[in-house]
From TrEMBL:
Pfam families to which the protein is assigned, alphabetical: Lipase_GDSL
Keywords: Hydrolase
Keyword Hydrolase set for record: yes
Organism: Spinacia oleracea (Spinach)
CDD domains: Isoamyl_acetate_hydrolase_like (cd01838)
Family: Belongs to the 'GDSL' lipolytic enzyme family.
Full protein name: GDSL esterase/lipase At5g45920
Keyword Ligase recorded: no
A Gene Ontology molecular function term of the record: hydrolase activity, acting on ester bonds
Gene: LOC110804614
Alphabetical list of InterPro entries matching this protein: GDSL, Iah1-like, SGNH_hydro_sf
Length: 236
């Protein structure tokens, strides 16, 4: 059976198979070597994610995925006194929830690589232009400062769990025009942001042994099929 890489997260994961999305790019990159399975849930925070782990990853007798990405924090970091307060999760609880997700996945699949991804940076002006419900305060429901605190917490938990992490909050802000090139609405990813996530995920997975060079190719390559006796290639 072809191995799997599962993507677990919020809307940034749910939308990852859109045109130019990071999940679609992973599927293209790992074609013939691994199936990319998307488990993204728009609007979810880690508090809700912990509650549905058994439904998202049911206990069935199947091979462990080679890797699972855990990409939460953009909703947890909503401010507690703004219009999206119902999505807010306090920082300490966010860290506990990440630990719980990691522990659950490792108990289910001991050999699976768990790759944390931090929330991306926030363009507050962009968020004011794209409220998803009525915003009577006229203030952004997220700030880049808060997102940075949650990103740091995610990095800290990854180090504590001795598992790899992609710090998207820091990486995206290395680009001077990140607000326009990386984000579409101050939060979700534009093609530039998707490209960065894809490249960073591939790089981190390669560091821990999940790469095209090490994963077996599914069925004989066309170049390996003997044109004089094609069916012989399928005997083994």
């Amino acid at each position: 059976m072809r191995p799997k890489i599962c993507l677990f997260g919020d809307s940034i994961t749910e939308e990852s198979f859109s045109n130019g999305g990071w999940g679609a790019s992973l599927a293209n990159h790992f074609s013939r070597t691994a199936d990319i399975v998307v488990r993204g849930y728009s609007g979810y925070n880690t508090r809700w994610a912990v509650k549905v782990l058994d439904k998202v990853f049911p206990a069935v007798d199947e091979a462990a995925p080679v890797a699972v990405t855990v990409f939460f924090g953009a909703n947890d970091s909503c401010l507690h006194d703004r219009y999206a307060a119902f999505q807010h999760v306090p920082l300490d609880e966010y860290k506990d929830n990440l630990r719980s997700i990691f522990t659950f996945l490792k108990k289910r699949w001991e050999t699976t690589v768990i790759l944390f991804i931090t929330p991306p940076p926030i363009d507050e002006a962009g968020r004011l232009m794209h409220p998803y419900i009525e915003n009577p305060s006229g203030l952004p429901e997220r700030t880049n400062e808060a997102a940075g605190a949650y990103a740091k917490a995610c990095v800290d938990v990854a180090r504590e769990c001795e598992t790899p992490v992609v710090d998207m909050w820091t990486k995206m802000q290395e680009f001077s025009d990140w607000k326009n090139s990386c984000l579409s609405d101050g939060l979700h990813l534009a093609q530039g942001g998707n490209r960065i996530v894809f490249e960073e995920v591939v790089k981190k997975l390669k560091e821990v042994g999940v790469s095209l060079e090490l994963l077996p190719v599914d069925l004989p390559l066309f170049s390996e099929i003997n044109p004089k006796d094609p069916l012989k290639s399928f005997e083994n």
